[in-house]
Each structure stands twice: as structure tokens, then as C-alpha cells.
Amino acid sequence: MAHVEASDGTAIHVRDWGAGRPVVLIHGWPLNADSWEPQILALRDAGYRVVSYDRRGFGRSGQPAQGYDYDTLADDLDAVMRGLSLDDAVLVGFSMGGGEIARYMSRHRGRGVSAVAFVSSVAPGLPKSAANPDGITEKDIEPIKAGIAGDRAEFLRGFFKMFYGVGTFRKPVSQGVLDWTWGMAMQASPIATLACVDAFGLTDFTADVDAISCPALILHGTADQNVPHKATGLRLSKLLPKARYVEYDGAPHGVLATNADKVNRDLLAFLREV
Length: 274
Hints:
CATH architecture: 3-Layer(aba) Sandwich
Helix content: 40-55%
Largest sheet: 8 strands, mixed
CATH topology: Rossmann fold
Radius of gyration: 17 Å
Structural class: alpha/beta
Order of helices and strands: EEEHEHEHEHHHHEHEHH
CATH class: Alpha Beta
Strand order of the largest sheet: 1-2-4-3-5-6-7-8
Number of helices: 10
């Protein structure tokens, strides 16, 4: 484990395991690199070099007061790519992490990347528009921000029940996974936790997606209440018609845990083909 330095000096905590072709895992909000645990061992055992990192403000990375816009976050990804000399890499983004992929592919012209995968991703954007009638408005994210500002710890306990489909999904996660996820989230800076709500909730990545020409995989649950698939995954599949689009019927947002076997199977199959 090590750190790379972002362009503004922020330390980005990196986990770098295994050897072979690099697969870079970009976590969702409000988690950290540990959230990829159900995938890390499967990827490493299949012969890949597995790189994951904590977004600035989260986990063990530095917690500056600024820099939570997607331009800066894409630059942080570039710092990881350059710092570890990664090439022929596959980027895999979960939820908010899909936004980093989209912005990196346009802002940094996909340097060092040969394929991308989006899991429960916010790309091509959550904002409601004529092109995205199933999207959200700034008013829709105000309760999230109010909950974080008022009692972040208690708000997140409820949030993760929805995240994993507790009470609605037929195979929800254990209490242990809920506690583990909550613990990750509470490591984050409250400033970063709040600022990133605006970033993932209000950023339109449509123009960024236009820069993606490499092979792509899109995985999304049809019962995702946090990032609805009609506003994101399904729409992304239409913007990337050559991408492989897989829906998990009835699955919630947190498919890395609830549908780990399927995610691992589909991701490994994609990696073998690209």
C-alpha cells in the first residue's frame, strides 16, 4: 500500500495487489477502496493486477477542503495512472466512480486505458432534462444534504439499507456488511461527503461519454433506488451502442455485495474478451 500525490499535493491512498494487466477500481460515494473487497480477490486470483484507491476526502486519502469537482477527481485518477505507470488498463467505476471514468476519458483522452466498465454508475448523468426525464433535480438532493449536515451517522444507517435493498431485495446483505459499509462511510470527511453529493447529483457527463471509443461494459440493477437505471445505465447503453449492457433484475444499488458472484462473473468474462 502506498500514496500518490495529486496535482495540488493531496495524498491519494492506493492499494496495488497482484501482477498482470491492471484493473483500476474506482469506488462509489461515500465509501472507499475497501468496498471492492468482493471483487479484489476474484480479480487477483484470475491473474490481474488490482489497483484501487481512496477518493480524496474519503478513507485514508488526504481530506482537503476543496477539490471535489469532477475535473479535479479525474486529475486524481490521472495521478494514480501516472504514479503507478499503468498502461493497457481497464477502469471499473461503481456509482460515483463512473463519473471519474467518463471525465477521465474526455479530459485526459483515455491515456493508458484500453477498456472501461460502469457498475451502478451515475454516468451519463443524473440531472433531469428533456433527454433524461427520469433524472433528478437539485431539489431532490437537498434531503440528502440536510440529513448529512444534521446527523450524518444516523442518516447513513438508513441510506445503506436502501443501498442494499434491505426490506425489498430477496437476498439482502448481513448486518455485518451493513456495519462494515457504515464504518467506511464514517471515515470520510464531512466536507467531502457533502460536496460530492452536488458533484455526482448535478454533473452531466453526456459530452464526456462521447469521448469513449474503447470496449465498455455496463452493469446495473433494475431496482436501484439510489441511481435509477433508466436515468443512467440504460441511457448510457444507448449512448454507447457497442457496449455490453447487463441488467440485474430486481437488484438494488449495492450490487458489488448483493450480486457479487454475478458482477465478478460478468466482469471477468469482459476482461477475457478485451
